[in-house]
Amino acid sequence: MATRPTGAGDAALERATGQPWPHWRALLDGWGGSSLDHKTLARRLADEAGVDGWWAQILTVRYEQEIGRRQPGQRCSGDHEIGVSATRLGDMDAVLAAWRAGHDARAEADGVAFDGPPRVTATEKWRYWKRDLADASRLTVNFCPKGEGKVLLQIQHGKLADAGTAERWRAYWKAEAKALG
Prior knowledge:
alpha+beta; single chain; disordered N terminus; 5-stranded antiparallel beta sheet
């Protein structure tokens, strides 16, 4: 059995769905959930049990983790993804510029070569820095406002081979976020 899933806590889940986790676990088991795919489970929770789509996803992932079909951080595709966040002082453009100064010219990260140059895009509310790696994984760094004079830096690294690789990258990106200051 997988370790306890990360994400929404039991109290938040019950507030949002009106039922405690044991209710949802019994319902999913009753539907033969272990033989149904992720999409079918989430759709049934939304359509038949009236669960909001986001919470239907949370319930489905938790169920899949508890029955051992998915590890924490594992996507439906089987690959893994990690996320690291940190709050930095400044505006989005200044924090993005600081990130770019330390990362645009790099040829590699933690011994893995980058595959091509970074791609930077912007909307009114967000800034994005994306880069592919030679191991076929993908890095996305998001920047969004978080109150006056603060920016939330979110590092997402996906298409990782396994849980061990994911944890290695989580430690690496935590250090990188901290070094940004």
